[in-house]
Design goal:
Strands 1-2 form a two-stranded antiparallel ribbon. The protein has three helices and two strands. By secondary structure, it is of the alpha+beta class.
Length: 90
């Protein structure tokens, strides 16, 4: 059975998740978005690999390289309502 496709269809690049990485830490990197609040964009593009945004498997994920302003606004709105768990590292 094929995996569900990511809703993100733009350009993306691979990123190897490291120990202690969180989506917010990855999004905050200067070479990604420079803004940890945009973690949801990465999560949304990798839903087939990431079941829980607070628990990252050590796998290669795809980082959307040019999210739209609408995607950024949605990510910030979701971030405001997200309650991180104890292991979120935030």
């Amino acid at each position: 059975e094929p995996m569900p496709a990511s809703p993100y269809t733009g350009e993306s690049r691979p990123y190897q998740v490291q120990r202690y990485d969180t989506l917010a830490k990855i999004a905050a990197r200067a070479d990604v978005y420079g803004d940890g609040d945009l973690w949801y964009i990465i999560y949304d593009a990798n839903r087939d690999l990431i079941k829980d945004p607070d628990l990252l498997p050590r796998v290669e994920i795809m980082i959307p390289t040019s999210p739209s302003e609408a995607q950024k606004e949605e990510a910030r709105r979701i971030n405001e309502n997200h309650v991180p768990n104890l292991w979120d590292g935030m």
